[in-house]
Protein 1
Amino acid sequence: MSRKDDFYNRAKQEGYRARSAYKLRQIDDEADLLSPGDTVVDLGAAPGGWLQIAAEAVTEAGTVVGVDLRDIDEFDHPHVRTVQGDMTDERTRYYLRKALGVDPDPDDDAEPERPIDAVVSDMAPDMTGEYELDHARSIHLARQAFDTALELLRPGGSFVVKVFDGQDLADFRADVDREFRYVRAYTPEASRKRSSERYLIARGRTDAPVAEGDEVEVEVTGTGDEGDGVADVEGYTLFVPDAEPGDTVEVVVDDVKPRFGFAERVD
Ligand SMILES: C[S@@+](CC[C@H](N)C(=O)[O-])C[C@H]1O[C@@H](n2cnc3c(N)ncnc32)[C@H](O)[C@@H]1O
């Protein structure tokens, strides 16, 4: 029996709407992404295999919202919602924010709400068989998913995105690298053998919870390579010169980078 039949038959037996359900399960097993109580956005969600896996992982304490161009058959679970629309269209993003309970139309100067724990995207273009065109379209969709992740993910949140391998993948990955702590490429066993699909698994959205000039109290928990104290602020690393592990110190933040920042003691 081929691997394709294997996953197809398993999906039928176990009541999953698509064999691709096993891809998200393998990604989750590999990277430990989804937890009970999480809020998850699933892009390119029809017919709903990933929605089923995500709904199981977050339990009824969590919420999953799926978006697809195609209609998605309703789910019994009250914690699964769906939106039909094109993710390249701003109106769909508006309805997604609404389904998530996030202000769908925030003022330009309002502090953005970012309550989402994970954005996962299995979006794929209709395949033409023309390698470069399919690749370019896939990267375009992956970038829409990336923008959505940057807009909605809480600091420390996770992002998974399908891409077809090709010349623009390295640039896309470099952009994802800049915004997350850990990024890796992964091909689940459930992906078809000859497929060029890959998943980028990005963990630890580095949205600095502090700004330059902020004064905060931090606990120093380690020492960096250069001898500076290392403190963790909501998952974001601050280096503090002249501080030792175990110190609790008042600092002023003087440099904020995507992955880490620097602060001076003021006490
Ligand atoms: C591989 S299928 C997803 C399978 C799904 N993960 C599951 O487990 O059931 C890819 C989906 O991406 C959707 N898609 C492609 N372009 C899209 C777009 N611009 N906006 C929303 N969905 C899109 C397609 O309609 C298709 O249903």
Protein 2
Amino acid sequence: MHTVEVPIKDAKNPPKIIFPDRCVNCGKPKHVVMPMKLIMGVEKRGQGVLMDFPVPLCAECEKKEQRITYVTLVPFLIAGLVLGVIAFIPAMLIAPEGTSQQTLGFPFVFGGLVGMVVGAIGGTVVEFVLKLLLAPVYGQLLLKRPLTILSFFNDSENVIGLSARFTDKKKSLKLIFENDVIGKEFKQLNL
Ligand SMILES: [Zn+2]
């Protein structure tokens, strides 16, 4: 793995970064460019500024990238749903029955809450274990991807072979390349 940090001097005008013109993961000829965007958190002429860095991928790695959804988001959702439903039923049954009009629905609410918490935790555990098992196939950077549950708060972009995130206060963009050769070439192009 190879890490490169590209300094960002002006958040309103983030640097244009250039990738070697071949697959970022394996170095084969470029087939597509994956759009990658990170929010700079500042505005220019009333519009939010984005740091834009399209990443080249070969056909094979593009397919792999698409399949990664099936080992992260999909298992999280399915396991979460199944475990949530399983937890919902006993939780609803053991919840004290409401006596007044206001508390009549309590077992249902309680069951739903327990189901949601168990589903979120269970789904995350399943996703985490799957990532560990599949890292040899999809690359070690798979482990650096935020878990689905955290991805809503996370300001990083990930694609097969590459992980990009801002450093503290967005003073620079830190890129981690799975492929050392591409990482070194990228460094020469950008620093
Ligand atoms: Zn490739």
Protein 3
Amino acid sequence: MKWDDSFAIGIEAIDNQHKKIFEHLLAIESSVAKRDPWHILHFFVTQLAESLKLHLEVEEALLEIVRYPERVEHRESHVRLLQQIDELEDQLRNKASGESLVGFFEIWFVRHVLNGDREYAAYIREKFPALLDRSLAPAGL
Ligand SMILES: [Fe+2]
Ligand SMILES: [Fe+2]
């Protein structure tokens, strides 16, 4: 799967983070395809986990600030995403069918962005349009 601009939710800083996470996923995918040893794969998985954790924290803080009504449910869906990263790491370490697992995580992640994240973006666009012009995180995240 490739990142597609139609996945954008319209909040630039968040979209950049989503894209970055996707790049990490693609790096894992090609590492698995090349049958890289675990220490190399582990490096990519760690990068993915770090940028995902940071992203989810930024998102949760944002939803708190704008008092998004579904913020508790949204946070719960993030917990599931983090659990899946742990599962992915375990299974890659044990050399289970890595390629399909990474693909599965990609689909799950994109689905979260297109459903959950897009819903809060619509809320922010309606209630706090000025926020859409601001950078929410340092560049390069
Ligand atoms: Fe997100
Ligand atoms: Fe989210």
Protein 4
Amino acid sequence: MHYPVTDKQSALNVADVVANPQFLLTKPYTKSCERWFKENYPGYEAFLTSSCTRALEMAALSMDIQSGDEIIVSPFNYVGVANAFAMFGAKLVFVDIEPNTMNIHLEAARQAITPKTKAIIAMHYGSVACDLDGFRLLCDENEIFLVEDAAHCIGAKHQDKPIGLWGDFSAISFDAQKNISCGEGGVLLVKQKHHSVVEKVYENGTDKRAFDRGDIPFYSWQCIGSKFAISEYDAAVLLPLLQRVTEITHDRREAWNKLFAAVKNHDILSTFLPKHLKDLNHNGHIFWLCAESTEVAQYWVDWFKKYDVQASFHYPSLDNSPFFCGDGNTTKTNSIELSGRLFRLPLTSPTETIRELLAVSNA
Ligand SMILES: Cc1ncc(COP(=O)(O)O)c(C=O)c1O
């Protein structure tokens, strides 16, 4: 069982909104969260959304995807990422992953670029960064968008800068599984040069924001958009957690490091450890292991279950899904192969139990 981090100040903030219902219109907590992102992600505008999936849909709309435009994306991914682009008629071009990180492979992405390519989606699995300089350069050279799927990445850094600072658009999740959560929520970080398009998409395709600033006398429908905003109640919950991101990330890393030490001492599980551990700036979001076969991974998931520890698989590979390829896929990718062997151990609870269990099972 995963236990999301909460903060008493969130409850006080929600009570503040209840006592001041005009806040549902003026949205001071949403604005404070957006200011927090602007300060911590310089050069970017922030749009708080009701989920990271919605943030990615907003990116897709802002890129003006037309039927047949190609989006390069890793198949080892959350299905909402694929849907966010497919729903606007994009053709998904799946390129394989690097086995060490489970992240999209830079050279494979390079090979997949065609004149129809509109964007590359770089998802940072467990907040271990993709080759961001490489992807930024590749996208610039080919004049295509880089979208960072930074769903896992709040508090995580790459080269001492927050992950999210390389994309044209970067999306972060605050759903209940994430290091920081308001139940459901997300943010789309947008490079300033794309800001004027995105602010219309965010407001149902209107120039309402310009009107609210007093730039124009009335607002009107300008393009296709939708309603993406987070609820003010959720923003009230989120704000104190964002303000504690350094401490929460530190605690999460501590839990991750302790689990790592226990697994490293275990005769069998230590052989399943990934080799990405040189990256010291991840936020401890995911602790994953990769067994030598699906059967062995299942054995360990069942073994942990006997002790009430919920180990779990992750992301059935999208290039093997009934929707994408029916039931006739014969291609073998790293993503298909490894997603059947990867399993995660919980980090928020009960790491103590896991450590004791592993010590005993090793003895
Ligand atoms: C890699 C990745 N991207 C995007 C999402 C979507 O996030 P949300 O649940 O906030 O829509 C998730 C969800 O866990 C995810 O794992």
